[in-house]
Amino acid sequence: MGFTFSLAVNLALNGIAIGALYFLVAAGLSLIFGLMHVLNFAHGALFTWGAYAGLMVWNRTGSFVAGLVAGALAGAGLGALIEWGLIRPLYKRPVFQILLTLGLMLVLEEGVKAVWGPDAQPLKVVKGLDGAIKVLGQNFPAYRLVLIGLGLLALISVYLLLQKTRLGIIIRAGVQDREVVQTLGINVRRVFTLVFALGGALAGLGGIATAPFDGVSPGLGSFYLLRAFVVVVIGGFGSYGGTAIAALLLGVTEQWVGFFLPRAATGLPAVLMAVVLLLRPEGLFKLGGGRAS
Amino acid sequence: MSALLEVEAIHTYMGEHHILHGVSFAVPEGGCTVLLGRNGAGKTTTLKSIIGLLHPRLGEVRFAGQAVSRRPPYAVARQGIAYVPEDRGVFVDLTVEENLLLALRPGQRLAAKTGLVFRLFPDLERAMRQKGGTLSGGQQQMLVIARALVTDARLILLDEPAKGLAPLLVQQVGEALRQLKAHVTLLLVEQNLALAQAVGDGCTILDDGVSVHSGALADLMADPELQARYLSLGTQGVA
User: Fold this and answer.
1) What integer best gives the mean pLDDT of chain A?
2) Contact call for residues A212 and A55 (beta carbons, < 8 A)
3) Can you tell me the mean pLDDT for A192-218?
4) Complex ipTM more than 0.85, yes or no
5) Which of B72, B92, B105 is closest, CB to CB, to A176?
6) CATH code for the domain in which residue B197 is found
7) For residue B151, is it within any domain?
């Protein structure tokens, strides 16, 4: 097939829609690592649980919006529970954390199979959003525009939270230096649970948002977690804006490479990450050089 | 007069390393006490043991009569101790205003506190919307001191606030500290004897993790033999 304007628009919009999903997973991963220095391998499982919990509520109530809310709540609840019950005793033992979250990833994934069965759930369309909308004169699946909108909404909401609230200032300061935050009379640990819940909510929302786009299966979270790690490394750990831009970059590049060099697409995330690590190991958007500790 | 801060025979470890082997001194309310000693004598460890970033295994730190040495840093800070770390601790991605906002307790308003801050550090008033990382080294130091002031602390711990600054800025920091001590008690770790002399009233000398001398700073300055024994003059000043 030759290269046409219509194709370019489609690839770009697809890439942005997928990038929005990557962003929803990566944002929490990045914030959790930035503030708590916890590499949360179980984060992808929150995505899967959000997807299944959201789907269940959507099926029961018939409302996609209720499903979105349920997905986000499931992710938030699970994230808070993991921090409060499991990670908290291990803040001083990073190796244990990695073992724990890796194990948790497997347990949660098996848990999904135990509760909902091992099979993929069929793609489910949202009523009224299963058609196409004209973008720049080209037909484009309406739901993918919804995905883009959802990603944008999450991006802006969390941005405002980080920029305009006291909680946000504490999070941003804590990403740079938790010790100094503590010496200002702030019990930074109380913020930790909230950040896990927030990250979980974004992942859970991403999970259920995938259902009408890609379908839902127990291994879904691992697929997105892998790409979210790449996004976080490219964007710079703890950098919120960097995460957003890197998510779009990966989503769009994957679409283009996937079209022109389909056999290279699978390896693309690893290649992108390797290039960034070689040229700018601190990520594209490192926070301005603060204290290292 | 009973002391505002009493450090009683503390022993502090970093991991398995025994850093402080019995440090004792008192800081009276008002004025500036200087903590002196060679590199590695344990001055920074002493400050961290007071603010709660490190917890002494033995001994006690008492602030305003209350034991604080087993408490986390945020609890110690709420008792009224502020800490200006050696590498400044400006939040570089936060604006100057946000840096100051962090120091407020919930429900307090920044506007109620900026009067004194801006009088002492006029540069900050113009830079409120600027990111902390865009300030010069001297301005960053002023910001961290201002932030300590905004916490309403009764005691501010300062770890070599003039380290790495140009001589003119060292003078400015000294001037700021002189004005500051009229409002709040200072405990200053300083290698630069000239700055210490310009600001300090009392002093304690640490040597190899032990407090070896406490007294008036003026007496130390008049005693070259004591200085030679505990403060290797060759390495003083800007590190």
Assistant:
1) 89
2) no
3) 93
4) yes
5) B92
6) 3.40.50.300
7) yes
Domain interval for residue B224: 5-87+141-228
Identify all chain B residues contacting A183, using CB atoms and an 8 Å cutoff: 51, 53, 73-74, 76-77, 82-83, 85, 89
pTM score, whole prediction? 0.85
Contacts of B131 in chain A (CB under 8 A): 288
Domain extent listing, chain A:
5-279
Give the model's confidence band at B233: pLDDT under 50 very low, under 70 low, under 90 confident, else very high.
low
- Give a yes or no: residue B135 inside a domain: no
Which of A162, A167, A184 is best to mutate for the B interface (most B CBs within 10 A)?
A184
Task: Kindly state whether residue B122 falls inside one of the protein's structural domains.
Answer: no
Cross-chain residue pair B92–A177, CB shorter than 8 Å:
no
As a CATH number, domain A5-279 is 1.10.3470
Q: What percent of chain A has pLDDT over 90?
A: 63
Looking at the domain assignment, is residue B11 inside a domain? yes
Residues of A in Cβ contact (< 8 Å) with B151: 184-185
Flag if A290 and B92 touch (Cβ within 8 Å).
yes
Instruction: Determine what percent of chain A is predicted with pLDDT higher than 70.
Output: 96
Q: Give how many domains chain B has, as a whole number.
A: 1
